[in-house]
Design goal:
alpha+beta, two-stranded antiparallel sheet, 5 helices, globular
């Protein structure tokens, strides 16, 4: 009932049908964050001793200390935020999709990549990645899956001196993803899909090297302004 209430009260979160067995990455992420939010709200009700208002746990009333989320095996604070605060998911004006939210400051891009099911090439430095690249990583993973491409591999962050002068790589605002394992046409399609989702705030292109095809890659960079 609480999940359905969130669907009604927050259509901008694009929450999927919780019983749908076939969900893509975006839908699974939205569903799981909503469930965490609901469980955190439920724990708040319990800790406030409003047990009698919850028919499914009414028998717990007066049973003593209710404990914390962790001690009861419940999720920690939910990612979907209450009204009046910025949500971690926000609707994209492009194609009605939903993007992961920016993260402030520097983040561990390797952890983000692994959480998204990506692989990071040995030597790729993502340790101080600009948090504004987080939505881009989610879109890259999502569109690769939608196109039936291999699992994305991050091949470069800020770890090379071979990028052109002034490259966003040196400012931790750019990532390269392996493209030497897919046909050029698929690479171009991948870039088109990612670009259409991210909008003008990002540079997205599939870079090809006819003389060195092993270097082909998808380049994604957050513009400085």
């Amino acid at each position: 009932d609480r999940y359905e209430a969130l669907q009604r009260d927050h259509p901008e979160w694009h929450l999927p049908d919780i019983s749908n067995p076939r969900l893509d990455y975006r839908d699974v992420s939205r569903r799981d964050q909503a469930i965490s939010y609901i469980m955190d709200d439920l724990m708040g009700d319990l800790r406030a001793h409003r047990v009698n208002e919850l028919s499914d746990v009414a028998g717990l009333s007066g049973a003593g200390s209710l404990g914390t989320n962790a001690s009861l095996g419940m999720p920690q604070t939910g990612s979907l935020t209450p009204a009046g605060r910025a949500a971690t998911l926000f609707p994209s004006p492009l194609e009605g999709g939903t993007l992961l939210a920016d993260q402030e400051g520097r983040v561990d891009g390797t952890k983000v990549a692994r959480d998204l099911g990506m692989t990071v090439k040995a030597g790729a430095n993502l340790g101080q990645m600009d948090g504004r690249l987080v939505p881009a990583m989610g879109v890259v993973a999502d569109e690769a899956r939608a196109l039936g491409l291999p699992k994305p591999v991050v091949t470069s962050g800020n770890d090379s001196t071979e990028h052109m002068a002034g490259s966003a790589h040196y400012a931790n605002r750019a990532l390269d993803f392996r493209g030497n394992n897919i046909p050029d046409q698929q690479g171009e399609r991948w870039a088109d899909q990612v670009r259409s989702r991210l909008g003008d705030g990002f540079t997205v292109r599939f870079e090809r090297f006819p003389e060195h095809p092993e270097r082909d890659h998808l380049h994604v960079a957050k513009r400085s302004k």
